[in-house]
C-alpha cells in the first residue's frame, strides 16, 4: 500500500522568509514523488518530480525538494516566499507500474506582506 | 491554449438528475485520467484510459458512474441519479506516450447537487 501524509494543513509565512512544507510517504516499492500546486480557480500544476536520479530536486519558481529515504520524507522548500506563492500544495506519490496518483490532503500556504 | 480543457466548468443539478462532463486532453496524449476532489481534500483517482481502453477503475467509481473515451481522444464522465455526496470538483488529466508518470491537469468541473 502507498500513502502520503502532509504534516501541516496550513502554513503561514512572511514575504521574503523561507518556506517549508512537510511530506512523509509510505510505499512498499520505490516510488515516484511529486509536488503539485493549485492556485484558486486554476488547474493543478507540476512543481517538481523525484524519480531516483538525484535526491535534491529543483522545480519551477525557485522551489526544491529533498528525498530522504531513511526518513521517508520529501519536504518542499523555497528560500524566499513571494506573495504569488500563496496556494494549495499537494505532495503526490506514484507507485512504479501504476498510473494512479495518490495525493496528500494538501497544505495551504499563506504569505503575509 | 493547448492544455487540458474541461466542459462545463460549473454544473448545478438537482438530486436524481444525470450529468455528463467532457474532457479534451492535450493533443497526442494517449493516457487520460479522471479524479474527484472534495472540499479540503486532495484529488482521488477514479479511472484511467490508455487510448480508448479503460484500464483501471477505482472502487470510488460506483455503478452510477461511467466513463468513456470512444475514439481515444476526448472523454466523457457521466453520473446517473446524482446524490448530494457527488458534489465535488471533477478533474481530468492526460499524459503523453513514454512520458513517464507526469500528469497534466485541466481546470476541473465543479458539480453542485442540490
User: Which sheet architecture does the biggest sheet of chain A show?
Assistant: 6 strands, mixed
State the distance separating the first and last CA atoms of chain A: 41 Å
Mean pLDDT of chain A: 91
Shape summary of chain A: globular
**Helix- and strand-based class of chain B?**
mainly beta
Number of helical segments with 4 or more residues of chain B: 0
Give your account of this protein's structure.
With 113 residues, chain A is mainly beta. Helices cover 0% and strands 55% of the residues of chain A. Chain A has no helices and twelve strands. In chain A, strands 2, 5, 6, 10, 11 and 12 form a six-stranded mixed beta sheet that branches. In chain A, strand 5 and strand 6 form a beta hairpin. The termini of chain A are far apart. With 114 residues, chain B is mainly β. Helices cover 0% and strands 49% of the residues of chain B. Chain B is built from no helices and eleven strands. In chain B, strands 2, 4, 5, 6, 9, 10 and 11 form a seven-stranded mixed beta sheet that branches. Chain B has a four-stranded antiparallel beta sheet with strand order 1-3-8-7, with no helix packed on it. Chain B is globular and about 40 Å long. The model of chain B has no long low-confidence stretch (mean pLDDT 93). The chains are: A mainly beta (113), B mainly beta (114). Chains A and B meet through strand 5, strand 6, strand 10 and strand 11 of A and strand 4, strand 5 and strand 10 of B.
Structural key phrases:
heterodimer, A: about 110 residues, four-stranded antiparallel β-sheet, about 0% helix, B: about 110 residues, mainly beta, globular
Q: Which secondary structure elements does this structure contain, and how are they paired or packed?
A:
The complex is a heterodimer of chains A (113) and B (114).
Chain A: E1 3-6, E2 10-14, E3 19-21, E4 23-26, E5 31-38, E6 44-50, E7 56-58, E8 64-68, E9 73-78, E10 87-95, E11 102-103, E12 107-112
Parallel strand pairs in A: 2-12
Antiparallel strand pairs in A: 1-4, 3-9, 5-6, 5-10, 7-8, 8-9, 10-11, 10-12
Chain B: E1 5-7, E2 10-13, E3 19-24, E4 31-37, E5 44-50, E6 53-57, E7 65-68, E8 75-79, E9 88-95, E10 104-105, E11 109-113
Parallel strand pairs in B: 2-11
Antiparallel strand pairs in B: 1-3, 3-8, 4-5, 4-9, 5-6, 7-8, 9-10, 9-11
Amino acid at each position: 500500500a502507498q500513502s502520503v501524509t502532509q504534516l501541516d494543513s496550513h502554513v503561514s509565512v512572511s514575504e521574503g522568509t523561507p518556506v517549508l512544507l512537510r511530506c512523509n510517504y509510505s510505499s512498499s516499492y520505490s516510488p515516484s514523488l511529486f509536488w503539485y500546486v493549485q492556485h484558486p480557480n486554476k488547474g493543478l500544476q507540476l512543481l517538481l518530480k523525484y524519480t531516483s536520479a538525484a535526491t535534491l530536486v529543483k522545480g519551477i519558481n525557485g522551489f526544491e525538494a529533498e528525498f530522504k529515504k531513511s526518513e521517508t520524507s520529501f519536504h518542499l522548500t523555497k528560500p524566499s516566499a513571494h506573495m504569488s506563492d500563496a496556494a494549495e500544495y499537494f505532495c503526490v506519490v506514484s507507485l512504479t507500474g501504476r498510473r494512479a496518483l495518490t495525493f496528500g490532503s494538501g497544505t495551504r500556504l499563506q504569505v503575509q506582506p | 491554449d493547448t492544455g487540458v480543457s474541461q466542459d462545463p466548468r460549473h454544473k448545478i443539478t438537482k438530486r436524481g438528475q444525470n450529468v455528463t462532463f467532457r474532457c479534451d486532453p492535450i493533443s497526442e496524449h494517449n493516457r487520460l485520467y479522471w479524479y474527484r476532489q472534495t472540499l479540503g481534500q486532495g484529488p482521488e483517482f477514479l479511472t484511467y484510459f490508455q487510448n480508448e481502453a479503460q484500464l483501471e477503475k477505482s472502487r470510488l467509481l460506483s455503478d452510477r458512474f461511467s466513463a468513456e473515451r470512444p475514439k481515444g481522444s476526448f472523454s466523457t464522465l457521466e453520473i446517473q441519479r446524482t446524490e448530494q455526496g457527488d458534489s465535488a470538483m471533477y478533474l481530468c488529466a492526460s499524459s503523453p506516450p513514454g512520458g513517464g508518470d507526469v500528469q497534466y491537469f485541466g481546470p476541473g468541473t465543479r458539480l453542485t447537487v442540490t
